[in-house]
Amino acid sequence: MVVLRSESSVLWLLVIAVTAHVSGAAGKPKLLDYGASCESEDSAISLRSSKTSSALEPEPGDPANAFTVLTLDGEFSYQPGALRGPLIIHAFSNKSGFLECLWSSESSLSSLVEELPNSTQVLFLSLDDSAFSDALWMKEQVQRVAMHRNKEVLSRLHFSPVPVFALGNWIPNVLYYWRCWARNCVYAQAVFKSEGWNMPVIVKRLDARYDWLMKRWDTKSYQLTDAGDGCQPSPSVAGAVAWVSEGNCSFFTKVESMAKSNASGVLVYALPGNPIQDMNCVEDECDTTLDIPAAMVHMEGSVAQALEFGQLVYVSFQNTPSPNFFISIDHQGALAEMGWSLYPSFSFVNWQAQWFDFYADLQTKLQSPAKVVPVFDKVQMQGETGAVATVDLPLALSSFDTLELDAALSCPGKRDSSCAHWDHTVQLFICCDPLGPYCDTELGRWITAFRRGTGRWLTDVSPLIPLLDSNKCTLTMKTVPWAMPWFVSLNLRFSVSNRTDNGAEKLRPFRVMPLYSGGTFDRNYNKRFHPIKVSIPVSTKKVELYTVITAHGYDENKCGEFCVTSHHFLINDVFNNTLTFDSAGTPLGCTLTVKEGAVPNEHGTWLYGRGGWCDGLQVDPWRTDITKQLNMSEFESNTVVYFGLFNGTDPNPSKEPGYIIMSSFFVFYK
């Protein structure tokens, strides 16, 4: 239950008393506050040890207990089972350059206002003793953007003026126990030292975006050299970190110019009064790889003055552990991690909320009537063998016309940190008759998430029911043998569809005919494929082309993972059935599939569109009715031939060609 009580004099006396004690002053957050903060591990351990044993180690999946917090509008109460949607909890801190940019960026705030799912509520907190002014400022930022876009969103956003350390509920325990270890979820800092200074100067920083500048700062100390605005190469910065001002040219131009000057790195400082910004390339700039680290900080007067008077200044870089900035409660009332925000944008909150909605809808679908055959229940999948199980199928299999794969992947531990570091293809093979033509045929395909432990999908593979040609079948689920372990769960769901074919009697698949598989996507790729003669079985009413295709690898054309490939099935030399992966390589192609089940906020470049797949998602079959393209007479034959193209021509990479994984069939219905 969510309770929003109206403002009262008693409530606000309490708010004022609390915030006066912990903050001492109101107003805009201190965006130019350079103080460093480092919560010790001992303090976190002490916090945990003071709790009961049931709350010692809160983990994802644990039920969230009820809580109440004061807000600027009254009071927000959470009661398990009462919310209809998820709750996101965000803890702000003035000590984070990442969060400063998140709340100062118009595009980030616009994303929150315009794209937050209607099912989702957000509770905004502050980790600092300036929580009262932080809450006022955060609300003003959102309110300004919402009014400009004429969008109602504030009724689902709740701003608390009470600092996290004074909440008195379970939230601080989770925020600190789930402390940040990812790149943009720590207090990233630059440390300046110079002879004659009694203390180093420590400022918050925001590193250049992950997908543009992948070079990280070393832990060593660098000499700092003033390079003006950094828009032109400067020989004086060779071997040093260049100190450059924002403005007059793009961030990319500054870093590129300093790289050409053999600088060891670049620190861009914001002009007085300006917030830290997201340093990223724009459009064609992103095609150039820059091999030095860069970051943005605030202009520190003592540093600028020392450089102006010719003093030697040295800079080093550190990441101080922080509490987690984002946690959540899903539709079912369970605690959940939010994953990794690759750059400062509320889009990552929206994507996680979209996935919560997807998962809630999936749970509803799984309540529909079906004959469920359990195959795996959190069985470890690793090595050459993978996960293997033999199951008994329903005796009246012919009475079902729908087969769905209810599959899930989880990690060795409950936290994302225990998950595999890379994305891999997972395939499910079935063998019902060891001597039959269909043994070890692919039944389903998925892609693992990049270091995230959530993922469950329901995939309709009904056309492949004829593969289950025995009462007992062996199913094998596997990925590359060198991958870190995953734990797989799988149920086969048999049911009767309520759908009909154009109002007529429902047709059922009774036979499948394997066609083509893929291979190395090189100059010889299409030479491997020859026309196949097809005779239509007696009593066939419909024929469907059923294919599962994914493109992988990375040659000089970024093929096949990030290049646009097309896959053609030519029927009788006339009908060209084409599947084109036109979203491959797009910056946000896979974010569009979160509503379909793609796991959001993974590590790595999960956002980019791929060749027929996305990290943390099932690979949906491509199905095309080709009945009218065929001669359906049993006395006539048909031909089909497949070919794959890159940019409309045969692939012809000069090195490291990619590859295509493909299963394709004709499915015959009667």
Task: Please explain how this structure is put together.
The structure is a single chain. This protein has 670 residues and is α+β, with helices and mostly antiparallel strands. Helices cover 15% and strands 30% of the residues. Strands 6-7-11-10-9-8-12 form a 7-stranded mixed barrel. Strands 5-4-3-13-14 form a 5-stranded mixed β-sheet, covered by helices on one side. It has a 5-stranded antiparallel β-sheet with strand order 16-21-18-19-29, with no helix packed on it. Strand 13 (326-329) and strand 14 form a beta hairpin. The protein is globular, with a radius of gyration of 29 Å. The two termini are 52 Å apart.
Layout of strands and helices, then pairs:
Blueprint (H helix, E strand, L loop, with lengths): L8 H14 L18 H9 L17 E5 L2 E5 L8 E6 L4 H8 L1 H10 L5 E6 L4 H18 L8 E3 L11 H7 L9 E8 L6 E7 L14 E5 L14 E5 L5 H10 L4 E6 L23 E5 L2 H8 L4 E8 L5 E4 L5 E2 L10 H19 L5 E11 L5 E6 L9 E9 L14 E7 L9 E7 L8 E5 L11 E7 L7 E10 L13 E6 L4 E3 L10 E4 L6 E11 L12 E7 L3 E6 L36 E2 L3 E4 L11 E10 L11 E12 L1
Parallel strand pairs: 3-4, 4-5, 8-9, 9-10, 10-11
Antiparallel strand pairs: 1-2, 3-13, 6-7, 6-12, 7-11, 8-12, 13-14, 15-22, 16-21, 17-20, 17-22, 18-19, 18-21, 19-29, 23-32, 24-32, 25-31, 26-30, 26-32, 27-28, 27-31
